[in-house]
Amino acid sequence: MTVGHGSEHGSDPGPGTASPAAQPPTNDTLPAHASSHLLSTSVSRLNRLRAGVLGCNDGITSTAGLVVGVAATHPSTTVLAVTGLSGLLAGSLSMGGGEFTSVQAARDSQDELLHIQRGELETIPHEELDELAHLYMQRGLSLTLARQVAAELTERDALAAHAHAELGIDLDDQVNPWEAAAASALSFLLGGVLSLLAILIPAAGIRIQVCVAVVLTSLAGTGYLAARFGSAPTARAALRNLTVGSVTMAVTYALSALTQALL
User: Fold this and answer.
1) CA nearest 184: which of 5, 15, 12, 51?
2) Domain ranges of the chain
3) Going along the chain, which residue ranges are E strands?
């Protein structure tokens, strides 16, 4: 086919001629908004937020079940206060200790795997480079591109590249066991204080009813927040929390009343 006069003389294309496709930027850096989005969606940070909300949820539920059960047989404010504070202390220490043990055990396992990986990178670097390329091929990259990606990542930080691709460990996003323990204990304590105040502040004749109302409202809120952090359906999470809280308080209340009747 022959080329039109407009093309021969280098003039602008006519109205019916398609314009050349826009070329993507040639720089090798991501836009700022892409980086900020990646940082804001850190899986570990989201998990820590959800753990805090769920710790608060546990504090609300367990303390409410305890004090409502006691209030069914011993409406004394002093008895409720001592029982509630004891439950708060035991629960927060148990939550914090359990979280520390769990996270520290996971970190110990990760550290051992990283130690082994570091040794392999020092002794058999070429085999490890081939292994990394193979991992990226399994994710859909061609052989040429997989080798290029593996080489560039290895040059930048070989241990971080293997930790992420081979072990599923992000070296920049690991959870500190002390921080996790403190967050878990504090969140449980805050949730438990809410339930304890809800049973202590109202008058004796209505304290159980007020406590139940406050607790169920709070559980709906924590269920909603936990679902939002995890991108899950909020209504279902709130209903689940309400069900668990209602059953917990109903069972402890009924058991206490039955025990008093039998004894």
Assistant:
1) 51
2) 51-262
3) none
Give percent above pLDDT 90 in the chain.
53
Mean pLDDT of 103-126: 92
Place of tokens 């072990």: 167
Query: Helix 143-162 crosses helix 77-123 at what angle (to 10 degrees)?
Result: 130
Residue-wise pLDDT for 151-186, tens only, equals 999 999 999 998 898 888 888 777 788 988 998 999
**pLDDT surpasses 50 at 25:** no
Q: How confident is the model at residue 208 (pLDDT cuts 50, 70, 90)?
A: very high
Residue indicated by tokens 């008895």: 79
What is the sign of the dihedral through the CA atoms of 98, 100, 103 and 104? negative
Dihedral angle computed from the Cα positions of residues 134, 161, 108 and 112, in that order, rounded to the nearest 10 degrees: 60
Count of Cβ atoms closer than 10 Å to residue 70 Cβ: 21
Which residues have C-beta within 8 Å of that of residue 86, sequence separation ≥ 6?
none
Lookup: tokens for 81: 């206060």
On the CB side of 178, how many CA atoms lie within 13 Å of its CA? 0
Cα–Cα dist 32/38, whole Å: 10
Which residues have CB under 8 Å from 128's CB, separation 6+? 120, 121, 154, 158, 162
Buried b (16+ CB within 10 A) or exposed e, 205-217: eebbeebbebbbe
- How far apart (Å, rounded) are the C-alpha atoms in residues 250 and 195? 15
d(C-alpha 154, C-alpha 28), whole Å: 18
Using alpha carbons, list the distances in angstroms from residue 106 to 79, 113, 167, 179, 229. 40, 11, 13, 14, 23
- Token look-up 């130690």 returns 115
Residues 126 and 103: their CA atoms lie apart, in Å, by 33
